[in-house]
């Protein structure tokens, strides 16, 4: 959708039956109110930038919303969106919201040379979402074509050229979009987010950040993931906050470019996972720091993976000469099942920490407006202040469940509360996140499921069947993957280790932090299921012997 095509039909009205000064009840109504021509969204590509005022965002998405009907897509239909261009993705997603079409954002291939693996992931997500069609950014058409999807595949140009039709206004309780997790999984779950929940969370985020139209935001976070999608597309658009975007790939190539953009535009709000702050603290040169002005940056959000105090302190110290203030840090906790934000640190208060079992734990803030948090013990009892247990959430931002998975929905959404599978405790009203009950390893802000890593690594000859476990391990400013395995008789440990590293890197694009070869079998349940937590505990106590 490059070239900023002019809208061909008039802006569609009538999404809401409330005055313009009342809060909108659907995203369609919020988009219909965009009027500002002095501020907008700027999408920075490698060679050029595309700018859209908020008034233009309103006009273009109204035009495209009317054209979904021309592709045979109607209200309530699910459409998979795959685009590596932020401008294209934003217009496709927002126009779907206006038309009552349920967008299903899916990550593009991380590496273009892995078409076969990506095709399998895409087919699973198409099946799980029961999508009507797939809309693919032009540069990715060939890769997606190789996935051999059993549904129509269109390009953005097809939508622009489609005949306009009537639009049925979505209702607050209607599904706005389906959100998959950020990582790969053998059993993807699509979270069902309603218009009501999306607007409730967006308003709670705005209030928690004290965001105003005069703010300026900068983001490299992928728009197919909830933190980038809700936090840096939905929130800025409905509040008409000027926002500048870089691609995630551009950040990976040159992290300092993110700070240069913050400095250039005088950004006041920007977010990143913990690893990004650590990366910049260690890689920035004195010349990099000297060229920056970060004095306007008042909200330096941190989320999507465990927040580490030493990382943020190192960043603050490194960039203090550039005007960065440590009190700008705003650690957060959230998850797609609650649309995005659950807790935010009060803006301007900076880091707050406490200690548990000798570890320094960072506060992730207080519940956002309209959200309650409680901690439950293993027997379902409510935990008191400072007592660790499972984090449970309820409130206006909760999603409706997992699409097509009633049993898993019933387990997670029980008695009006979302059981997150994350561990933590409350102290003085602040939430401290300490770990996870569920088996997920977070590497650089991306979820990796242990069984996916174990499946790939287990294809290497020389590993005893059923005796390989993927565990999280501290790796600098993020988590890393530790593989624990037992060798088959006569296998060469060095050869197996090298082949495992290559296989995981090739198939999953993931570097293994270390590989431990142990004697004997790994612990399992009576039914033969691997016990990862027990494996980690036995390693810690020395009861599981590592071969020299």
Which key terms come to mind for this protein?
GMP Synthetase, Chain A, domain 3, Rossmann fold, 3 domains, disordered N terminus, nine-stranded mixed β-sheet, Fatty acyl-AMP ligase, single chain, 548 residues
Protein model, in words:
Belongs to the ATP-dependent AMP-binding enzyme family. Residues 1-21 are annotated as: Disordered. Residues 49-403 form the AMP-dependent synthetase/ligase domain. InterPro entries: AMP-bd_C_sf, AMP-dep_synth/lig_dom, ANL_N_sf, FAAL/FAAC. With 548 residues, the chain is an alpha/beta fold. It has three domains: 55-188, Rossmann fold, CATH 3.40.50; 198-436, 3-Layer(aba) Sandwich (Rossmann fold); 441-541, ANL, C-terminal domain (GMP Synthetase, Chain A, domain 3). It is built from 17 helices and 28 strands. The strands form seven sheets. Strands 2-1-10-9-11-12-13-14-17 form a nine-stranded mixed sheet, with helices on both faces. Strands 18, 19, 21, 22 and 23 form a five-stranded antiparallel sheet that branches. α3 (86-99) links the parallel β3 and β4 (102-105). Mean pLDDT is 89; it is low at 2-14.
């Amino acid at each position: 959708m490059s070239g900023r095509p002019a809208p061909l039909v008039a802006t569609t009205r009538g999404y809401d039956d409330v005055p313009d000064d009342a809060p909108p009840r659907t995203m369609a109504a919020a988009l219909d109110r965009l009027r500002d021509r002095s501020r907008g969204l700027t999408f920075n590509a490698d060679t050029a930038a595309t700018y859209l005022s908020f008034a233009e965002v309103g006009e273009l998405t109204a035009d495209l919303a009317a054209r979904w009907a021309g592709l045979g897509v109607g209200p309530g239909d699910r459409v998979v969106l795959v685009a590596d261009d932020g401008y294209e993705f934003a217009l496709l997603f927002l126009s779907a919201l206006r038309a009552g079409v349920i967008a299903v954002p899916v990550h593009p291939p991380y590496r273009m040379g892995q078409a076969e693996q990506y095709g399998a992931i895409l087919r699973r997500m198409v099946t799980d979402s029961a999508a009507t069609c797939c809309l693919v950014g032009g540069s990715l058409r060939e890769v997606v074509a190789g996935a051999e999807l059993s549904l129509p595949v269109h390009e953005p140009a097809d939508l622009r050229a489609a005949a306009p039709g009537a639009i049925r206004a979505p209702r607050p309780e209607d599904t706005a979009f389906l959100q998959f997790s950020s990582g790969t999984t053998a059993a993807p779950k699509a979270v069902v987010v309603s218009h009501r929940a999306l607007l409730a969370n967006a308003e709670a985020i705005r209030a928690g950040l004290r965001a105003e139209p005069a703010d300026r935001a900068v983001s490299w976070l992928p728009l197919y993931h909830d933190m980038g999608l809700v936090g840096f597309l939905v929130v800025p658009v409905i509040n008409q906050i000027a926002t500048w975007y870089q691609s995630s790939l551009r950040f990976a190539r040159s992290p300092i470019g993110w700070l240069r953009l913050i400095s250039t535009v005088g950004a006041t709000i920007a977010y990143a996972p913990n690893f990004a702050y650590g990366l910049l603290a260690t890689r920035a040169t004195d010349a990099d720091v000297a060229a920056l002005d970060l004095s306007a940056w008042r909200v330096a959000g941190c989320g999507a993976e465990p927040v580490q105090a030493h990382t943020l302190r190192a960043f603050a110290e490194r960039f203090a000469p550039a005007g960065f203030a440590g009190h700008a840090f705003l650690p957060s906790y959230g998850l797609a099942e609650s649309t995005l934000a659950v807790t935010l640190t009060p803006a301007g208060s900076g880091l707050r920490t406490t200690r548990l079992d000798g570890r320094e734990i960072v506060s992730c803030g207080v519940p956002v407006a309209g959200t309650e948090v409680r901690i439950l013990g293993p027997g379902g009892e409510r935990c008191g202040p400072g007592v660790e247990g499972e984090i449970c959430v309820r409130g206006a931002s909760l999603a409706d469940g997992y699409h097509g998975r009633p049993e898993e929905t019933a387990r997670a959404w029980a008695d009006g509360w979302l059981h997150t599978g994350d561990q933590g405790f409350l102290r003085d009203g602040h939430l401290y996140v300490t770990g996870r009950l569920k088996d997920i390893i977070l590497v650089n802000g991306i979820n990796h499921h242990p069984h996916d890593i174990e499946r790939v690594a287990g294809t290497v000859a020389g590993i005893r069947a059923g005796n390989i476990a993927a565990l999280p391990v501290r790796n600098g400013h993020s988590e890393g993957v530790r593989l624990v395995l037992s060798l088959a008789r006569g296998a060469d440990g060095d050869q197996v280790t090298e082949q495992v590293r290559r296989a995981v890197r090739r198939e999953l694009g993931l570097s293994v932090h270390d590989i431990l070869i142990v004697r004997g079998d790994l612990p399992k349940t009576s039914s033969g299921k691997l016990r990862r937590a027990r494996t980690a505990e036995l390693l810690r106590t020395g009861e599981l012997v590592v071969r020299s």
